[in-house]
Sequence to fold (447 residues):
Amino acid sequence: MPAQRSKARREQIHAPPLKYISREAQAYGGIDIGGKNTEVRIRTKDGRTGRAVVPTFQKSEGMPVGEILTGLVGSTVHGVQEAARNGGIEISEIDALGFGAPGAYDPQTGMFKLTNITGETPVDLTTPLTEELRKLGFRGDAVTEGGNDCDVAAFAKNLGEVVVVQQGAGEQGVLNGLEKSIYLLLGTGIGGGVAFAHDIDRGATGAMEIGHGEVGTPTTQQPYIQELQCGCKKPHDGTICVEAVASTTGQENLTRAVTRKHIMDGTVNPEELKLLLERTLEWNQAELKKEGISGGRTYAMQRSAGACTAIIQKIVDKKLTPDDVETLDFVTFDAATVDRLAGGEKPQVEIAAEVMRISGEHFGRFLRTIVLTQNPKQIVIGGGGGRTFKYGDAETNPFWAGMMSQLSDEYDFFGSLRKTWIVAAVGDENLGIDGSSRLAVAKYESG
Fold:
């Protein structure tokens, strides 16, 4: 009997949705709530499309959870208003809105645990968001549907432009029955989601923290890695959370650690370091010109620009010394800038190439573990960091080369790696928006 009940339960969980449609959504949208920006896209059956990107509400130190939630809902609603306005769409026309948020979503309670936003306190994001939209004309029969940003991204159908990192067996992108597609968000953090052909696997409580899986670090890289600290504060000794070294934040922190070590050892190339800091300074200044930049970020960019300028002047005056690593602590690097300086047949900056190669090796070990333990049909790499794969290949892109060194046949004892498709979504399609809108439409159309 227990086995029979278990089988019935599995069939219920993974059953395809009802075939009939009780109503058809004429206008629908998706919302991707990110750490820095919130992106919204709304579409109608008659071809109108509205898109908007607005700054996500940034909390201040000591702010109560209630105020943070109010601010977050406010910035999200503002994004919906802007997207609707840009597409010539009335809020009252929208039938379904889906959203993804960066935190654990408990499917049993409907509560989000947005650790980086509202701390450890679970919050109901769906209800206040819906209520605020109602004030603007969102109809009573319209629906909102939310989830973890990576879970909903895993459910996306339209991957847009992709780069095939590793070709697996069978046909790319087509899922049948219980075949799994795993989505990895390679951004300021690393998140993950799992989807089947007709459903999302949210886990037992929605608290999958894939970016905090640990990967081993070679002894030769320990001097760099020991300086890195994951946001989860987990101590490391020979291992590290993959997020701390392979996310874009991790790459930026790793750039500082590698640069520091080369300055202290006297092995840094001054002209290459000057170029890295000049490009970082340009990025700092561009960030300062953006609308809606928070006070804290303004201070960080101003401080970084000053530190870059000071070290550049030391290089010009030929007075750079190991003591200048203290000034380096104030520099805020940009992963995309580092990546551009690292790629090509000959890197412009060897430090940048070393950073991306180390980061790629750790990410490759992480991918290998996922493939060997989960045996998915495909892995889709998305997020801002996923665009790393747009520049070159394993021959000219050090991140890609480092990653592929960990996915070679010598590690593929049972052929798992060769059977899994690994692709990077490098186009402008936002998978979180696509997947969340698909979920919301399914909820609306099922009545």
In short: The two ends are 34 Å apart (CA to CA). The domain at 23-155+431-445 is CATH 3.30.420.40 (Nucleotidyltransferase; domain 5).
